[in-house]
């Protein structure tokens, strides 16, 4: 009924306090609350909330798993906007209700519906001043905004007044996840991958078989990518907590937050897991992963006769079909570059000078002419690698660690590489090169390992395209760096972008 008088606040909401959550362990879906008010009375009742000034934006980041801090359930979770904690439910005797009465915290946000409520009075708050909190929880990007990311030099300001560049924000190291952080930062510089995950509608229609929830990994990665590039962050850093929990779950604890791993193992698993979760197949353009990173090579393999045989026996073996050269076509997502072994002895000045090698020297492995010996426990092979198709983004893995029976050894050789104009056309055959219109690449990310094998730390250098500046990132620490300094580091994984 409508009346001319002012309505009482308690009567404005017709739903029952316990409608959203039963105090028993029953799952009840939230009621369909209309966003548009039915009459003028509703507008007035919903809008007035005297507690909006109690919201503490510096406590809000929404980076952690969205579950109740008391019951650990994921159903009907609300964030207290005064202290930043998560609680379940909204009705009487629920954890959010109890918290609001006990602590005097009144403004809550439903993390699923993105609606604001005042407890314990239990009415919805509609106020445009809260839109920044809603955007922080779920940043959205338009096509027009995405198109300006690589040209805009506009800085953003965090709640504490610090300035940051969207995309150049630190990732929190929860305990020993720096090996994951550097890979996630490096992949955020791959433009097609970034643009794909910044718009949720690109992958929201992906259908997975019943019972398979690997799509969660895609969702979490999309959320992290949007937080990294969010121009309205409250803080100048992001915690990859939810993303890494999905990684621990879907890698079956192969990759842990509490124990350092190898970035190349994580990178290899992660891009393949994303490819499969996006319904990728063996076809070239079946997912954004293959569109960005998939190349092809031809591998020539021939078996070597045992060394203890004499020349006549070797010749007779080489004539058999088993010892003929075999040619196979193989796709690749990254190329492994082998470093020359470091010198064993110190020089005449009693110093063990750190050896250096040119990147082009390492890449001769893929010219189709250089042979490399591979040993198994009973057979030896000679292999040649010939690249037949270059991808838009080329990942190079510089193999620094070798494992033997007793321990892991690190090769400290410095690789000299240019940050621009790396021409991979030099390693292609004339027929293959004729098929490639562009073969020049520029470096966009460089992952470095410092310290002892199995320990040490990882950091990453990334290029900000809009300014042309390089930044060094080590967890939360972000500093600018001269490109000349990047080439002096012990490079481990590099991502190159094809110049079109």
Question: How would you describe this structure to a colleague?
Answer:
The structure is a single chain. By secondary structure, the chain is of the alpha+beta class. The chain has helices at 40-47, 95-103, 131-137, 143-147, 178-187, 191-198, 215-228, 241-250, 263-277, 288-293, 311-318, 359-363, 430-435, 483-486; strands at 77-80, 86-88, 107-110, 116-118, 123-125, 156-157, 163-164, 170-171, 237-238, 295-304, 326-332, 335-338, 356-358, 367-375, 380-389, 393-399, 401-403, 408-410, 414-416, 422-423, 440-450, 457-464, 469-474, 477-481, 491-498. Strand 6 (156-157) and strand 7 form a beta hairpin. The protein is elongated and about 95 Å long. The model is unreliable at 1-45 (pLDDT under 50).
What's the tally of helices?
14
Number of E strands: 25
How is the main sheet built?
Answer: 8 strands, mixed
Query: What portion of the residues fall into strands of 2 or more residues?
Result: 15-25%
**Structural Rg:** 28 Å
What's the assembly state of these chains? Answer: single chain
Principal-axes shape call: elongated
What gap, in angstroms, lies between the N and C termini? 67 Å
Summarize the structure.
The protein is built from 14 helices and 25 strands. It is α+β, with helices and mostly antiparallel strands and 500 residues long. A hairpin with a 5-residue loop joins strand 1 (77-80) and strand 2 (86-88).
What labels describe this entry?
500 residues; alpha+beta; eight-stranded mixed sheet; 25 strands; 23% helix
Topology:
Blueprint: H1 40-47, E1 77-80, E2 86-88, H2 95-103, E3 107-110, E4 116-118, E5 123-125, H3 131-137, H4 143-147, E6 156-157, E7 163-164, E8 170-171, H5 178-187, H6 191-198, H7 215-228, E9 237-238, H8 241-250, H9 263-277, H10 288-293, E10 295-304, H11 311-318, E11 326-332, E12 335-338, E13 356-358, H12 359-363, E14 367-375, E15 380-389, E16 393-399, E17 401-403, E18 408-410, E19 414-416, E20 422-423, H13 430-435, E21 440-450, E22 457-464, E23 469-474, E24 477-481, H14 483-486, E25 491-498
Parallel strand pairs: 8-9, 12-16, 13-19
Antiparallel strand pairs: 1-2, 1-3, 3-4, 4-5, 6-7, 10-11, 10-15, 14-15, 16-25, 17-18, 20-21, 21-22, 21-25, 22-23, 23-24
Helix pairs in contact: 5-9, 7-8
């Amino acid at each position: 009924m409508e009346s001319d008088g002012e309505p009482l606040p308690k009567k404005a909401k017709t739903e029952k306090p316990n409608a959203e959550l039963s105090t028993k362990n029953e799952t009840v879906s939230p009621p369909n609350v209309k966003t548009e008010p039915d009459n003028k009375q509703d507008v007035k009742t919903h809008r007035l909330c005297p507690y909006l000034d109690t919201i503490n934006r510096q406590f809000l980041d929404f980076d952690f798993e969205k579950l109740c801090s008391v019951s650990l359930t994921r159903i009907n979770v609300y964030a207290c906007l005064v202290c930043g904690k998560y609680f379940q439910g909204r009705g009487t005797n629920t954890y959010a209700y109890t918290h609001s009465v006990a602590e005097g915290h009144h403004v809550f946000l439903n993390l699923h519906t993105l609606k604001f409520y005042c407890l314990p009075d239990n009415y919805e708050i509609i106020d445009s001043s809260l839109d920044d909190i809603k955007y922080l929880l779920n940043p959205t990007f338009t096509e027009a905004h995405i198109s300006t990311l690589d040209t805009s030099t506009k800085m953003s300001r965090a709640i504490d007044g610090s300035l940051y560049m969207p995309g150049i924000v630190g990732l929190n190291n929860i305990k020993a996840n720096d090996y994951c952080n550097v890979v996630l930062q490096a992949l955020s510089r791959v433009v097609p991958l970034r643009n794909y995950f910044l718009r949720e509608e690109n992958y929201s229609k992906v259908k997975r078989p019943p019972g398979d929830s690997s799509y969660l990994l895609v969702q979490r990665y999309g959320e992290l990518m949007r937080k990294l590039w969010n121009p309205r962050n409250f803080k100048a850093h992001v915690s990859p907590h939810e993303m890494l929990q999905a990684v621990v779950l879907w890698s079956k604890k192969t990759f842990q937050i509490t124990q350092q791993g190898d970035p190349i193992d994580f990178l290899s698993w992660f891009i393949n897991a994303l490819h499969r979760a996006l319904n990728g197949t063996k076809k070239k353009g079946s997912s954004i992963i293959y569109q960005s990173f998939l190349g092809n090579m031809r591998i020539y393999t021939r078996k070597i006769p045992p060394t203890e045989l004499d020349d006549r026996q070797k010749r007779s073996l080489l004539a058999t079909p088993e010892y003929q050269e075999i040619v196979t076509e193989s796709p690749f997502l990254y190329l492994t570059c082998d470093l020359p072994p470091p010198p064993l002895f110190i020089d005449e000045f009693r110093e063990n000078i750190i050896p250096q090698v040119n990147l082009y020297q390492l890449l001769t492995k893929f010219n189709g002419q250089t042979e490399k010996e591979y040993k198994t426990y009973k057979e030896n092979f000679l292999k040649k690698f010939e690249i037949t198709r270059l991808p838009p983004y080329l990942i190079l893995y510089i193999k620094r660690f070798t494992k033997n029976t007793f321990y892991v050894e690190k090769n400290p050789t410095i690789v000299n590489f240019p940050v621009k104009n790396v021409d991979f056309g030099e390693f292609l055959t004339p027929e293959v090169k004729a098929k490639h219109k562009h073969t020049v690449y520029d470096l966009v990310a460089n992952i470095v390992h410092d310290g002892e094998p199995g320990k040490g730390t990882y950091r990453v250098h990334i290029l900000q395209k809009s300014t042309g500046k390089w930044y060094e990132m080590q967890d939360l620490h972000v500093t600018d760096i001269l490109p000349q300094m990047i080439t002096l580091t012990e490079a481990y994984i590099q991502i190159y972008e094809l110049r079109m």
